[in-house]
Protein 1
Amino acid sequence: MARIVLKFGGTSVGDIDRIKNAARKIKAEVARGHQVAVVVSAMSGATNQLVKWVSEVATLPDPREYDVVVATGEQVTVGLLALVLQQEGVPARSWVSWQIPIRTDGAHSKARIVDIDTTEMARTMAAGEVPIVPGFQGLSPEGRITTLGRGGSDTSAVALAAALKADRCDIYTDVAGVYTTDPRIVEAARKIDRVTYEEMLEMASQGSKVLQTRSVELAMNHHVRVQVLSSFDDALGSDLPGTLVVDEEEIMAQGLEKSVVSGIAFAKDEAKVTVTHVPDRPGVAAAIFGPLAAANINVDMIVQNVSLDGSSTDITFTVPKADLAHAVQRLEQAKADLKFAEVKSDLNVSKVSVIGVGMRSHSGVALKMFETLAAKGINIQVISTSEIKISVLLASEYTELAVRALHTAYDLDAA
Amino acid sequence: MARIVLKFGGTSVGDIDRIKNAARKIKAEVARGHQVAVVVSAMSGATNQLVKWVSEVATLPDPREYDVVVATGEQVTVGLLALVLQQEGVPARSWVSWQIPIRTDGAHSKARIVDIDTTEMARTMAAGEVPIVPGFQGLSPEGRITTLGRGGSDTSAVALAAALKADRCDIYTDVAGVYTTDPRIVEAARKIDRVTYEEMLEMASQGSKVLQTRSVELAMNHHVRVQVLSSFDDALGSDLPGTLVVDEEEIMAQGLEKSVVSGIAFAKDEAKVTVTHVPDRPGVAAAIFGPLAAANINVDMIVQNVSLDGSSTDITFTVPKADLAHAVQRLEQAKADLKFAEVKSDLNVSKVSVIGVGMRSHSGVALKMFETLAAKGINIQVISTSEIKISVLLASEYTELAVRALHTAYDLDAA
């Protein structure tokens, strides 16, 4: 017998039929003798309608009232799902966030979970009742309703699993798991059976939008075993049909052969900025990125080469495409101080990344990437590496070609 | 400066434009220097959608989960209205029922308000903030969400007005007030400026569905001055454009000439049942109505004539049309015990009532009713009277004719 938290996303509870489908999965897990708690999202579309109403009445809405309105979406789902389960003979009840409570900080519409008191809930679970909890929301220190921001339901589920010391957190969604790359681009993409938190984080932030980054961080910090799986398949979570996101140790301990590279990620939402002929002196990088941080612009890949002439250098980095104009404007304003020559920008770039914890202990992973891209005649504009990731920036039109070539080169193609 | 509770019903907050309209009225009352608290219903249609979902998932829904689902309707409105007011420069915040709290008993889906703690709310009102409260709901002794049943938002508003010791409770709805009778039947029907609680209760239970009966009882018990008025008119509540429901003393004290009869009500949703040749002995009435009460059938007009032959009598009463078949079945089952001759029933009846506190001190009111109906050739089947009401049962097809004739006879027609 295991204790499992099941989370159903918006499309998995999108209408009454989908809610009934979720209930069948819950009932089957209970029938196997598992202790089950459930976290649900709003019915797909519901949150958008609520947000639309808010935007129709206020240009800069008070986030406290925004939260009051949008938190109703999940409250509808918890009540309906509890009713369906009861109808199916499964003892169940809803727990809205202030009843548990799920305590958060006071950052309305983007709150962080501080604490979940599961004392009472664990007691009812031991007595055979299935608690149904709304994702995405909590209770502020002032006793008001908070929401965690988009995608927050994953975080709610992982946090509840941590608080309940659950054996696993099954995230039911509309995809069968995490893939070696986007199956829409590479037909031979394979579902990954097991992936480490670190790899998942790189994949999530690289654009594989299966799990929200915050939920993966939380799972890593609390060693919560997370499974991503499809609610549209027949298979049950306990049979592990999806992708398990776990500690590297668990993968090693099971003697599973871990491929060096787990997946190929790509992102098309960044723009490249190059600041040329920056005086090569201490503090100049801080001087460039200070104004951008002050403007809340997220800077990603940063590359600074050694100075060739001993007096000036070029600094290249990426920013979200939506922030490019703003970033360039901020840099131009600082030109007099920074004494650089020029700001160049390019929207026509993509970032392609090779990800795998295995590369820590294997040499030649980067070389294979560069050789593969060279063989296809693809020019690498910028390179940036971490312990478990190598990212390159290339011209957008080569994205699919590069992803497919790398997927094959690292032996990721399905047999 | 007065303290006023404003309540906006479903059609008065039916869409974003209607919510903005409600906000304008609130803002205007605040501008006049009044302390204002607001109670709102769900946007019209919202509750029906939520109830429909519940009915799609459960035949006999757990009322606790039913309440979790349907209570979201008002929560959406409080958030949106608070946002609109803030946008208009009026300090406002939503208070959901568990935050105040509005304590109810544990009778889910038909709970009764036990207590409203307005300490904190009164403090914020004194500081110039407008509290926006969801009608129709509260917090059970077990800490779960309750709803008060259909029409409960009026009750919430009156209860809040009582707790806040408000000077008035303005119920904004889609009619301009309480009329001397249904204007769809009598073109000359007039809006009543002032009506007593007792009269309003008789009108509400007689089928003038302007205010929910429970809210009028509550207002009477706590001497809350209630005004019914239209949110679709330009006039503001403080100018008293609607119908004031108040103590008889207030009407007398103002030296207002009170007409003997305030209004003519009618109901078409009752059926007549006659039990013939019932043995005329003590306890027989109890024996007849016991089985009906046990079956939760609401019995209204009851008439028992004196026994003519000294040994048996006929008993006539009305029940809701929807319960008629059930009532007849119960009586037939008891026939062996009761030893009556026959149960006769008639769906083709209407109840027409003349209502007015003035009739307590005026003779001839009933006589005028009987003469008026006789002059039109309308046969009276059953008569039942109270201190402030005379009701008769007549064949349905005479309803409109009777109402119009009585409206004229009691000088209620508009000049």
Protein 2
Amino acid sequence: MAKDFSTRAENYAQWYNDLVIKADLAENSAVRGCMVIKPYGYAIWERIQAVLDRKFKDTGHSNAYFPLFIPKSFFSKEASHVEGFAKECAVVTHYRLKSSPDGKGVVVDEDAKLEEELIVRPTSETIIWDTYRNWIKSYRDLPILINQWANVVRWEMRTRLFLRTAEFLWQEGHTAHATMEEAVKEAETMLNVYADFAETWMAIPVIRGVKSPAERFAGAIETYAIEALMQDGKALQAGTSHFLGQNFAKAFDVKYLNKENQLDYVWATSWGVSTRLMGALIMAHSDDHGLVIPPKLAPIQVVIVPVFKNAEQLTLISETALSIKSSLEKRGISVKYDDRDTHKPGWKFSEYEFKGVPIRVIIGPRDIEQGTVEVARRDTLEKEVLQITDIDIKIEHLLDQIQKNLYDRALAFREENTFRVDNWEEFKKVLDETGGFLSAHWDGTAETEIKIKEETKATIRVIPLNNPRETGKCVYSGKPSDQRVIFARAY
Amino acid sequence: MAKDFSTRAENYAQWYNDLVIKADLAENSAVRGCMVIKPYGYAIWERIQAVLDRKFKDTGHSNAYFPLFIPKSFFSKEASHVEGFAKECAVVTHYRLKSSPDGKGVVVDEDAKLEEELIVRPTSETIIWDTYRNWIKSYRDLPILINQWANVVRWEMRTRLFLRTAEFLWQEGHTAHATMEEAVKEAETMLNVYADFAETWMAIPVIRGVKSPAERFAGAIETYAIEALMQDGKALQAGTSHFLGQNFAKAFDVKYLNKENQLDYVWATSWGVSTRLMGALIMAHSDDHGLVIPPKLAPIQVVIVPVFKNAEQLTLISETALSIKSSLEKRGISVKYDDRDTHKPGWKFSEYEFKGVPIRVIIGPRDIEQGTVEVARRDTLEKEVLQITDIDIKIEHLLDQIQKNLYDRALAFREENTFRVDNWEEFKKVLDETGGFLSAHWDGTAETEIKIKEETKATIRVIPLNNPRETGKCVYSGKPSDQRVIFARAY
């Protein structure tokens, strides 16, 4: 299982792809750019969904569902949105097939051509704001705080499992507010929900900030984002939250009667994370032995493997193993007891190591005699022999330690790989030699941003929130600047 | 809110539509045939999902996700499947839009035409079996027990909210087995999961059975189904489970090495329920006062409404109300305390009655003095004044009673509306005058089935499982028959 895959140093991209495929997380499908998410990968996604869904509800949101298809004309209504989204997308033009003349298959029925083409949603602002128009009459109808779990399609030419696929799964929140202040606050609240999720659950430290105008969502006034650093020194945007101003309300004519009995346009936000988070999760923690999954999101948190020579030994071991399993499950810990006799213990050890199960418990005949078990942790690969007494408490504690260690390790990595850079040669050198986050002065112009991107492929990932003011000179143009921003090459 | 909607007697179809729209469950969208599921409707669907998902996992299944799109050629591979599914469907032909020459919108980019058209999945057997081919090598890889929660599209010409929409949400299980016996058992197990869910959670009694050959799923050897009776005497198919034999394995060349080291085709099942269940739930229990939702699926199980004249009274009442709310929530009961001063109590009473909240608790100043509350149940509209002592236990018990009463009422209705019919004139008369389930002899031929359908619009809903053998004559042809089957007009 675990054999025959690339190390990070050899080929990081291949290492990532090998992990995804060989750990049974996902694979490419017969449809170009669309992936199959396999049960083990989907189980992680279900945990991500469950935690986020609870956080959305705790912050007052409800789920709903809007159509998969959007009439083509809707995309022309918001001027900047059409530039950003209407281009690379799946277009439905017909609604019927018929038997082919040769009787050997089916062909598109040209008589069943749609009057107006339908676009498979790349994001749902347009169809949702078209719907909100009928829901909102007065300030009493506001705020509307809705989230949707859905699939979306963006016809990407170069795809990578989880990181960039034509179809992906995501959630998209779409809220409507009576005032600008409330909408801005909502966008910031959801950024913090994402950041807390990334740090507490995914064990990935993130920088909270806003995007430069060039990197904003098409149609947004302000795009908030959390940015994470992967082990190869590239950045990954792990969630965005947009303050949309009144742009979509104006495009779809959504007005409300305010408390002063005057008509005004509604204020909007949208925010989303996607199955891309799976890519971040895999890349942030895993190593050359395989996946490393933070305990809080691991489908299997503890695996118990018996080591036995005969049925009699297995019976004895199973008694202890099942008792441990039961005591762990009472603490809400998910446990797999793998007593299959079709695979050897060694095979199982590397299998679960490869699949990133946080803790492996091994029980052999001598353990039974001595009242011990061997406990191995996936993050450090350390093993220790523990007394069975209070093993449930010890393991619960160890899971917390692993979660914390993964976060600390990722944070230390980020700190080691964040560089204050003050001249252009150094900027290029750091990017090429180590990568990472480059904290550098920028003159605030789109021209400079574009030139930096053209010359180095690095982009402004984020202008950190509460960024300290600091007088300096733009790393590229030398023009005056009053703050540093974070540059990186990115996924 | 509740005013101005049709009664069942006046216009059943209109009553249903009014309920769905005015109780904020769903509405039609800007896209023909596609619905918007609103937060209150979606909250019920989420409960349905949560319960079913738990049942699927308890029976050994895992979730996964397969592509939204299916290459057109896949539909030609299973001969009967193409007839049943490849016809009315959404066809993606292009993958890009471009700015229109007049600069005023977007048009389809004719240069971005797909080599092979993609079909938006109407059901996923084809893409899944194409994928399973690579997953299955030997009997050790079996069984595969996978479920998917997804959206699907069937281009229906006449749509009705929840009951028949172009896009709908569903789950589809797709399993692969080494033996026929195991696959048949799986199909039956899932039929029983659906039946138990319908009866225990939705409070809808169902008849378990198999479909006649003409009503089978396209590609199935046997289609198992549960059939429910609505209040207008029409049947509604509430779930299907298909034994697919080796049809899809043969179509997609999925073979495995059995224990005897010989190659054989894999055996398959598929099974699904959809947002159509929402239609069944609404129609089975609701009345001329609005929705009636079984407690086990109600997003709000108990609403507490304070009746007060001033802030001082509200403060006193709120103290008691919040204490009751908290004690109910400890029992896992979902409670809403509606202390808004923007709406009068009478408005709130009819609002929650219309929305089908199972129990309404009213607390006024005199209740506080006397240590009582008024409790109204939605199913019977009965009210009683109860002492606050142990109110949590009393309400929990009442929720159980309501759940049971809804089931009993629906069962009594079905029994009153199931008729043993032995001649053709009576068959037509019963159908026209009362509707309901008609238990009648059938000669077993497709010709008779088609003629009955043509003359009466009634179809064979189901041949009940464990059907008693009984010698008789076909109600239509007079030919010999050895069992009765269930006819009805259906949704």
